[in-house]
TrEMBL record:
One of its GO terms (molecular function) is structural constituent of ribosome. GO terms for cellular component: ribonucleoprotein complex; ribosome. Pfam families: Ribosomal_L20. GO terms for biological process: ribosomal large subunit assembly; translation. It comes from the Bacteria. This is Large ribosomal subunit protein bL20. InterPro entries: Ribosomal_bL20, RIBOSOMAL_L20_CS, Ribosomal_protein_bL20_C. It comes from Aquimarina atlantica. The gene is rplT. Belongs to the bacterial ribosomal protein bL20 family. Keywords: Ribonucleoprotein, Ribosomal protein, RNA-binding, rRNA-binding. Binds directly to 23S ribosomal RNA and is necessary for the in vitro assembly process of the 50S ribosomal subunit. It is not involved in the protein synthesizing functions of that subunit.
């Protein structure tokens, strides 16, 4: 009895991976084995970097808050300590946005916590 091969599913699987590899350079976009490896690696990077993105944005917000606070003679840690002590319920994302795009509002917060 001859071996049964599911060519339809095999082709569909390969087409799916090659579609994901669209836009890659060279053989990575059209050779099955190379594209499969490239797509697998890309998926690993995307999984890892979804977690890392949260860390990098938090670091960016802290940098912006620190720069805004230092314009008013405080360090980041002093500013955040006083924000927490005064029960101001603004997170780092909002504070960083205020420090960058609305310095008057940020200055009002600094004056309130001093």
């Amino acid at each position: 009895m001859p071996r049964s091969v599911n060519s339809v599913a095999k082709r569909a699987r390969r087409k799916k991976v090659l579609k994901q590899a669209k836009g890659y350079f060279g053989r990575r976009k059209n050779v099955w084995t190379v594209a499969k490896n490239a797509v697998d690696k890309a998926m690993q990077y995307s999984y890892r970097d979804r977690k890392a993105k949260k860390r990098t944005f938090r670091a960016l917000w802290i940098t912006r808050i620190n720069a805004g606070a230092r314009l008013h003679g405080m360090s980041y840690s002093q500013f955040m300590g006083k924000v927490k002590a005064n029960n101001i319920e603004l997170n780092r994302k909002v504070l960083a946005d205020l420090a960058m795009n609305n310095p008057e509002a940020f200055q009002a917060i600094v004056e309130k916590v001093k």
